[in-house]
Amino acid sequence: MLGTMFAPQGPTFRELAVQALSSVERGYDLLAPKFDHTPFRTPDRVLTPVSRALHRLGPFDSGLDLCCGTGAGMDVLRQVCRERVTGVDISAGMLSVARTRERVTATAPRVEWVRADARALPFEPVFDLAVSFGAFGHFLPRERPELFAQVHAVLRPGGQFVFPIGAPARPGSAGYWTLLAFDSVMRVRNALWRPEFVMYYRTFRLAEVRAELAQAGFDVQLQALPELGSRPDGSPRCRLVVATRAW
User: Fold this and answer.
1) What is the pLDDT, as a whole number, of residue 142?
2) Which terminus of the chain has a smaller tally of CB atoms within 10 A, N or C?
């Protein structure tokens, strides 16, 4: 099964097990050298339509990639931001890899990498755009209001917080049972083992997220990403959440 999910350069089963029994920070430090060869990296088929949508929303002067990992989302920000892009992540290992793969050109915006907890961002309101890709499962539902308040605080008035969100798996489908099994195993692991490794796939629900963003002071709009297809009922498989700082 691992062979169908990971490239040959990816982590071994033993390495994944060690990561899973670590904290989030330590686990990603260990995984960082091979992270780009795993399915956990946001794929280009998601990044590309998000980049197109941001081009329509922009241009922007400064951008923030929240929980940037090895920098896949930073590549998107470089395309739509003119002056400055900043990647923030709690894992020093992920940031180290991101720095080594950074591409520098004469016309690129200035790039910064900052190690920090997304729940305590060390910035003034200096960003026009904040993005995040695939990181929200690392935050418990009770942590999201503070997370969204932090993003609101580092955006300029009128700044936008943008991220893709996939439609939930249809109840009874293979994807539904796979995600349910993963979350169940993770809950058992965290009940029996310390430190916790927080990663849940079924806790980031659109209706709840919209309400929490509104409470944090955002005006929230949704855009379909048609390149990622439709469900059998015609609804999009993935939407872009565009949350604009209202005050």
Assistant:
1) 95
2) N
Q: What is the CATH number of the domain that holds 118?
A: 3.40.50.150
In a domain, 14, yes or no: no
pLDDT at position 6 is 53
Q: What is the pLDDT of residue 11?
A: 77
Backbone angles phi, psi at 110, to 5 degrees: -65, 135
| pLDDT attached to residue 2 | 40
Q: Domains in the chain: how many in total? A: 1
Task: Quote the domain boundaries for residue 58.
Answer: 42-168+205-245
Instruction: Note the pLDDT of residue 74.
Output: 95
Answer yes or no: is 185 within a domain. no
At residue 184, what is the residue type?
Answer: S
Quickly list H helices, the chain.
2-5, 13-20, 24-31, 44-57, 72-80, 92-100, 144-154, 174-192, 206-216
Residue 107 confidence (pLDDT): 64
For residue 3, the model assigns a pLDDT of 41
Q: In whole angstroms, what is the distance from residue 242 CA to residue 218 CA?
A: 9
Which segments of the chain have a pLDDT < 70?
1-8, 10, 103-107
Residue at 168: amino acid letter = P
For strands 110-115 and 81-89, give the pairing: parallel
Task: Give CA–CA dist 206/185, Å, rounded.
Answer: 23
pTM: 0.90
- Ordered DSSP codes for 134-152: S-GGGS-GGGHHHHHHHHH
Angle at 126 between CA 124 and CA 127, to 5 degrees: 125
DSSP string, 214-246: HHHTEEEEEEE-GGG-B-TTS-BSEEEEEEEE-
